[in-house]
Design goal:
InterPro entries: Cit_transptr-like_dom, DASS-Related_Transporters, RCK_C, RCK_C_sf. By secondary structure, this protein is of the alpha+beta class. It has 25 helices and 10 strands. 56% of the residues lie in helices and 8% in strands. The strands form 2 sheets. A 5-stranded antiparallel β-sheet has the order 3-2-4-1-5, covered by helices on one side. It has a 5-stranded antiparallel β-sheet with strand order 8-7-9-6-10. Strand 7 and strand 8 form a beta hairpin.
Length: 592
Amino acid sequence: MTLDQAYAFGIIGAVIALLIWDRLRYDLVAMLALLVAVGVGIVKPDEAFRGFSDDIVIIVASALVVSAAVGRSGIVEEAMRPLSGRMKTVPAQIIVLTGAVTLLSAVVKNIGALAIFMPIALQVARRNNTSVSSLLMPMAFGSLLGGLMTLVGTSPNIIVSRLRTEMVGEPFSMFDFTPVGLVIAVAGVAFLTVGHRLLPKGRKAASGAAGFSIDDYTAEVRLPETSPFVNKTVADLEAFGEGDVTVAAVIRERHRRYVPSGHWVLFAGDVLVLEADTQALADIVKYAGLELMHEKALEGVESDEDLAVIEAVVEPRSALVGTTVEDVSLRERYGVNLLALSRRGRPIRQRLRRVRFQLGDLLVLQARASGLSETLSALGCLPLAERDLAIGRVRKRWLALTVMVVTIALVATSTVPVVLAFFGAAVAMTALRVVTLKEAYDAIEWPILVLLAALIPVSEALRTTGGTELIAGWLSMAAQGLPPIGALALMLVAAMAVTPFLNNAATVLVMAPIGASLANHLGLRPDAFLMAVAVGAGCDFLTPIGHQCNTLVMGPGGYRFGDYWRLGLPLSIIVVVLGTAAIALFWPLRAG
């Protein structure tokens, strides 16, 4: 092993260790790795930033904008409406919802496809008294399976295609992934339709069968003249509750309803909507001299003052991630009350004002109904309720569909390069105002782009120093005595094992050159091994942290960390067995 190879291995090892440690964000880790690689001399200074101009970065960014445009157009929800009333049994619900997510994930980013269907799934679960935990994990896994079917279905496919150009002189085309991906996806959805029984029974999602049970947290109380809090402020009452009670609304003049700020003065006869757990509610009613009222629907209020309570999940792009309620001034800046919060299927025990939001947190928010969609979009939260389609957006739906179909046709027929086709589609979606410029920029996951741009030179250094050849030699020794298809399975399993710790995009950047080198060592064609890397990197079913789709459903589904392997392990075995066989069938290991 040379000194440069040792540097390359050390940097990659440090990247993996830092990502497992999870104290630094992955894009910062990638930038640090790039700086160190330049510092030790394995990446030349004039090549340090060439990753930012790589086609991979442009394709991924453009695909994210196109995906957001299709999602916001409402065409998917409109297409699903006729089916929503026919999903009566759990298997029917899983096969329709998971199948739809899987198909959509072939052309839309998988987390975007999942975000579109999660509100639909929750509505279906409520209408049919189905445990939502039976639906959401299969849907998350289906979104990963769907990404295997096309070039733009998932980032690993895009990266593998780009790396193939460097290795064999020609990229994978739009539907080169389809035969293998379709076999795996069909088998995976079929398994998930019956495999949901492997999930723990009787598990509640957050505080209820299909998300938060609002009744457990909301109660109306009257402030009588004898209460010591008459002529005191909302902040005084909330302070008395030691942060466990929120005055979500004040009702006056029998019908007028207000979202109060902390300095609002309370008067005798006010009806207060309190949000708290049962113990905190009982305590404040007893010691603050409040009178419980029978809960009832609040009607007769003016629309501009109406309140809405909605469940939502913190998305990856959310500005809330890493902040607290006080940091973002939810009430003052957004006019929103945080009523409850659940993380990974369990209530947060500490005071809500001190909790730092994380990806996948399940929130119960209360705000004015008017402008609620815009508020949630500004917060970066996914509403867990069936969304009403905006009036007058029918034309936008058809524009989005037309642009998407034309783009796929151009790529499939090789009329224009993939990068130009999807860049043009992103520009068209914005120019036609299917998405606004702000929505387009918000849809781009900048940390992922920085990760890719920074790691491209580092992964290239691993190859140019001979590190990939060295690892391929070790793997070829491990594969001695195995048939070629056994070596292919070994490559797929290795990529699948590394992905939870290294991020799927980074896994491909590191493992694809190793796979191609292993094929050369064994005298086999590299295409099959590149496909194996793409499949392995796209399939992480064992943990909630390896992929954002898995994290996103954890809170709403009420899942625990250990629940994922119950369903994910047999699915992973199916992927390895069928994936290896399908790759060997459609991409022969030997020439001729």
